[in-house]
Design a protein that fits this description.
13 strands, alpha+beta, 37% strand, Deoxyribonuclease I, Chain A, 255 residues, 7-stranded mixed beta sheet, 6-stranded mixed beta sheet
């Protein structure tokens, strides 16, 4: 069976209605979202993105909270994976790449964002005879999308966990990293980086991303990796959609 996957950093829900309409129209089997937020952490300071997505999509969802804001204990920031009801969720695990914490409310681009906790959500999925993992992660941020000691430390934690997986996996997310870095090369020891294989040069939305004046040509910081056993049928970056400050990545694959 061929499965379809959408990966997107949803920008704290700024264009949430458009994302919902797009997902419902295209009927994706799996959606891996980053910057899923609630309360003061959301773009409008109140929306619960996970709750809204859960009630608006004909998909089941799992949320992984990386941190909350000190100013609003009901707020949250994390990753969420939604999946078709054709799947049975065999296992769920949250891997913290830095311990959960309450953090200060900071503006986009503030260097202190790099100190916030990030995580990876592991879902073991079953559909018929197919059994595989979907791993949804958000890598530590820095003003320059290159290796830092903290980014490498967190990547090693995720890499060691991936090594333990006994089944094929799809690893997707906003890694805040470009190719030819220690972080990205680590995951390539276990899997193929489709962003690199398909020569994608940019995954930032040039019409919306705040860094467009600094890096007008963009950067490829969102990646999908597939391990042996995952057969890629199609991989695309949708450059003409304004669903976020990142561009949507879509994958069709077999197990």
């Amino acid at each position: 069976m061929i499965y379809s996957l959408l990966d997107l950093n949803i920008l704290k829900g700024k264009y949430l209605d458009d994302i919902i309409n797009f997902v419902n129209k295209n009927r994706f089997d799996i959606c891996t979202f980053q910057e899923v937020t609630g309360g003061m952490a959301s773009d409008d300071g109140r929306t619960d993105c996970f709750k809204t997505l859960s009630s608006s999509l004909d998909l089941k969802g799992e949320l992984a909270i990386s941190f909350r804001l000190k100013e609003d204990l009901n707020s949250y920031f994390g990753n969420a994976t939604f999946f078709s009801r054709k799947f049975i969720l065999a296992q769920k695990e949250l891997l913290m790449l830095k311990p959960y914490a309450l953090v200060d409310d900071l503006p986009n681009g503030d260097p202190r964002w790099g100190n916030n906790p990030y995580s990876a959500l592991f879902l073991k999925m079953r559909s018929g005879n197919d059994l595989f993992y979907v791993v949804n992660t958000h890598g530590a941020w820095s003003q320059i999308a290159k290796d830092t000691p903290e980014k490498v430390r967190q990547a090693k934690i995720l890499y060691q966990k991936l090594r333990q997986i006994k089944h094929s996996f799809v690893l997707a997310g906003d890694f805040n990293m470009v190719k030819q870095t220690t972080v990205i090369d680590l995951y390539k020891n276990l899997s193929i980086n489709l962003t690199e294989k398909f020569a994608i040069k940019n995954t930032l939305n040039p019409r919306l991303h705040y860094s467009r004046k600094i890096v007008p040509e963009g950067l490829a910081v969102d990646h999908i990796f597939v391990s042996p056993g995952i057969r890629v049928k199609k991989f695309t970056v949708l450059s003409d959609l304004d669903l976020s400050d990142h561009l949507p990545l879509t994958l069709e694959f077999e197990v």
